[in-house]
Amino acid sequence: MKVEFKVNDRKHSIEIKPGELLVETLRRLGYKSVKHACDTASCGACSVQLDGNPVLSCRTFTAAVDGHDVKTVEGFSKEGELSAVQKALVDEGAVQCGFCIPGLVVTAEALLKENLNPNEEEIKTYLNGNLCRCTGYVSQTHAIMKAAEIRRSSTSVPVEKRGESS
Amino acid sequence: MKVSNVKSSAVAPTEFKVVDTSVSKVDGYALTKGKAVFTDDFNIPNALVVKILRSRHAHAIIKSIDASKALALEGVACVLTHEDVPRVAYTRAGQGYPEPSPYDTFVLDKKVRYVGDAVAIVAAETEEIANRALDLIRVEYEVLPAVLDYEHASDPEMPVIHDEPEISGAYDPSRNIANHYEMHIGDVDEELAKSDIVVEGTYYTPNQSHAMMETHVAISYFDPNGRLTIISSTQVPYHVRRIIRRIFGVESRVIKPRIGGGFGGKQAVHVEAYVTAVTLKTGRPARCVYTREETMTASNTRHAMRFKLRVGASKDGKLQAIDMQGLSNTGAYGEHALTTFMVSGSKTLPLYNKVKAVRFGGDIVYTNTEPAGAFRGYGAPQSTFALDSILDELAYKLGMDPIDFKLKNSIREGETSPIFKVMGEGREGVEQIVQSCKIEECALMGAKHFNWYEKKKRPRIEKTKAHGYGVAFAMQGSSIPAIDMGGATIKMNDDGTFNLMVGATDLGTGSDTILAQIAAEVLHTTTDKIIVYSSDTDITPFDKGAYASSTTYVSGNATKRAAEKMAFEILKAASEIMSEPVEKLHLENGKVISESDRSLTYSEIQTKLFYSFKQRQLEVTESFVSEVSPPPYMVSFAEVEIDLETGKVDVLNFLSYVDCGTPINPKLARGQVEGATAQGIGMALYEEHVSDKNGRIVTNDFFTYKIPAREDIKNIKVEFAKSYEPTGPFGAKSVSEIGLDTPAPAIANAIFDAIGVRIKKLPIKSEDMFFAIKNMVKSL
Amino acid sequence: MLKIKEYLKPKTIEEAYEFGNLLNSLYVSGGLIVAQLKVSHLERLVDLKTLGMDEIEDGNTVKIGANVKLASFMKNSILSTLNNGFFKEVAKEIGSTQIRNMATIGGSIAFRLGWSDVTTIFMTAKSQVELYDGIFRKMSLENFIKDGKRDQIVTAVYLPKNARFLAFEKFAKSTFDIATLNLGIALSLKDDRIEDVTVVVGSRPMISERVREVEEFLTGKDLLSSMDKAADLMEKVIKVGTDMRASSEYRKALAGALLKKAMRRICHESGIQS
Ligand SMILES: Cc1cc2nc3c(=O)[nH]c(=O)nc-3n(C[C@H](O)[C@H](O)[C@H](O)COP(=O)(O)OP(=O)(O)OC[C@H]3O[C@@H](n4cnc5c(N)ncnc54)[C@H](O)[C@@H]3O)c2cc1C
Ligand code: FES
Ligand code: FES
User: Fold this and answer.
1) Which CATH architecture does the domain made up of C165-270 adopt?
2) Contacts of B138 (CB under 8 A, 6+ apart)
3) What is this model's ipTM?
């Protein structure tokens, strides 16, 4: 069957099998950041945003995505430049093997969209479905705190500037 | 700083520029951007999909295989059975050659030895066809009785698992004993008899799964020149190449791209043999991606072990004797069987070097269960759980604080233990004097930071919750001495960068970054000027691979040597160009500077050497083989909360102090310990495999086999008690494995502290805790 | 990948029901369960998401469309504030962010998962289910779980709005795990006496069930002092089983323990000192 949907704002009009899963379609289309690491919806490595909400692409039928917007980690960084979340993850040593990272970034970006000032508990709760076997999570939580801080200050910069000039 | 003597390694810690700083990982950008860097991300046109038909029986002889229906299916390229692959016995273990593990494995055999053992290899155009083909293969088995309980594996009536004539290197296959080891120092029985207090106990640790996020994956193909190329998610590319040649008689190139975690699970040949068999048979590229279930049930686990311990001490708290009798389950094949078992003694017992007598030994047995293999800690987490728990109990019976007791009996700088020499890894060890050891600082600073003495005064039980505090001590090693070798090549480029080529295998640990830092430090440049290429057997020099806590130590030393030689070559070239004696030149900020303040950048030097002056490429290769294996040390503190109504245990705080010498990259080193701690908490509380009565593992996914999730890990803190190891690169020792040793005993000791129940079996299940608490309350 | 022949997107509920009644058809909403199914004869999926049914309407009762996602427990202004934020709090214990963004109320209830927290929670709240099987009908969730038919389409869930105290407890091995046992209790207090009480236990491992003996025992009792006896009774009467996660003996003990925890929670909320 034929479906049409956007990935990172780019339109794809493709032929799929009716039972195809989004993770399979995305990898086939070259979005290799989307990982298939379990068969039981239990790891979050396949997370993508569907209309802005993080979902598991391993449990999403591509047929159901027809007409919707998908965002993968490739959509969060411009070429040569990392998003605040990505940069903080690297800087805090929160990326070891990196296999969990694309799914983590996609989910963390959604968290910061909903809550720009999360505490550690809120971060852990929001990202609890994103397993990481390498880091023990500590550094990842710190990184997301840091990214939120950077985002907050960058969105409040204009306000400060206004204050200074007056 | 002047490089008056570039060979000197005794640089004082304060003078580091790049080492001991937390530079970001060199592969961090690609990984966070989700670039196609893992094995399965590579598009190889026309690759066949390879699937393995696996045994449903724990122990059976294959009478016949009828693959005609599968072969008739359109799109099936081949079905290979034991009749189609070379009958060569080998071990899947990736270890130094000749391997201490028995040669007891075939690519495919006519006997299957566990549920999940390979029966046939199927290759097809698509995954769907391959899966359909699997369903169409008819196998007739003669089912044999199975050995599922390792405690009874060598009972007289038990069926023999390895009766093949080709087996070699196993101790007594007729009794299902893969290996046996024993040693003693002093007279243990006499010392125990003389001890004022003797404590005994039997401890069990389970077959933990690595649960790395990326499953096992390999791709093989002939390159345009007909060279067999294998891309593999492996920790041991050089061993893979050697073993593939042993099996198939074919030369190959093995490339390791980024790996999605290994933890020892990829220190073995898993998928490579299957894809190679297909490529050799069909001439076509072949790709095999293990499912999560295959990774859980048909690769490797940690060796489940049982330790029976007796320890004795004098009234004043002097440890007199340790008697440690082990039993290890290697499963269907003897990968890493002897060596993990020996490490469980050799990397724990020297810690208590004041003891008068030590006896250690036992069998490593075959059973019809998933083969065990290498797993972070490599035997030490199992034995540390037993040893540290029983010493905690001994301290308690002596009325001593466990910190005082363990410190009183543990090793210090300048001391040695006879065990270093007696027991190594698969063979004798090497004598060594401990030149860096901050175990005392670890314990004392940790106790202060954790508030140990104050916390121990608090009430333990409040309403429905109990709190407890536990401490555990551990050591590990840095490499396998006199065996592990690693090489490094450095090539200078005319843009002032260097290529660092290493066989060392970065499996997410950050070793590419650390090695770049070491090279940058020596070459007086920055990490971004060191372009690392690692783990391509056709391009990079040999390295044993990523295991035995050896990369920083061995590959780091090799890199340092190569960089020192390169520094010397640069000075020599500059001296010729500038017509100044070498002694008057030094390296600084990517330049050679003379006493007369003339300077040449690296870029200028190599450009001249390329085009106009005594033309040559500066390139050096150096190797390093360790003579000793300096242990890192660690002391950890756990605070647990026990829900008395349900038996659930939570680790509220976990603090570790680690002596890993100089942490080359503190952030990455901390990450190693934090990650290992979470895996240790998993082993202690969450991770359990359940098998049915036929030996099939039913916990074959992340839905049923629970590794700790984010909210399960409460508060982990890691601090360093820095020491300087003179034999290590810039004072470094290993750090990647030791973090897994302490969580289980620290948590178990904390549980005892909270409610007086001694935990002797892992994982600590809420259900068991609940009934233990109930029984205790009843008997009050 | 599921080997199916077609993925249908019906335009009306009648059409959906018709498709659903074709041989080897299956409804799909969030897809979390469906995408994992290993059924070889499945030919067709009938996507219910195209039918809308994703509104939350406030009235005497709260009507929750079957396609409403579990995430709405936390995000929807009506649901997240209901019963002092009860739904918002318990949602955190269900699956993960991604799962809550996908799982629908309808799919959660219709599949009759033994370990469903959602079923326990809604049964405790005495919800009604609206169904379509040619005509629309309404029945209690409790009866639907017992007697509902597989081909019926769940179209909405009705949540009564009243001042009962609600408490939910889940016991699981890890924070990202299904329940070893879950328990819900709802009650109102009149002069500190328990009235109109509902007690539900789920993941026994069998599906959620009301425990009427305990409800009867608690009726008219004082909340604080009846706790221990109620827990003892719970352990005696609750029907549980053994599986990989726990033995029946342990599940009995958990049922008692979770009842006490839930009752303490209500004590706390209602200002009774415990
Ligand atoms: C890893 C994991 C963890 C989970 N953890 C929890 C947890 O902690 N607590 C909890 O309560 N749940 C948990 N769940 C269950 C999750 O909530 C269910 O998967 C979800 O509720 C199913 O909803 P769905 O919309 O995805 O259903 P689908 O997968 O779309 O459908 C499920 C079944 O219901 C049928 N169906 C769907 N919609 C309707 C309808 N409107 N009318 C009639 N039939 C219908 C389908 O035909 C199918 O048989 C977990 C699931 C997973 C995969
Ligand atoms: S692949 Fe594990 S949750 Fe999707
Ligand atoms: S960094 Fe390896 S799984 Fe998270």
Assistant:
1) 2-Layer Sandwich (3.30)
2) B65, B66, B67, B69
3) 0.96
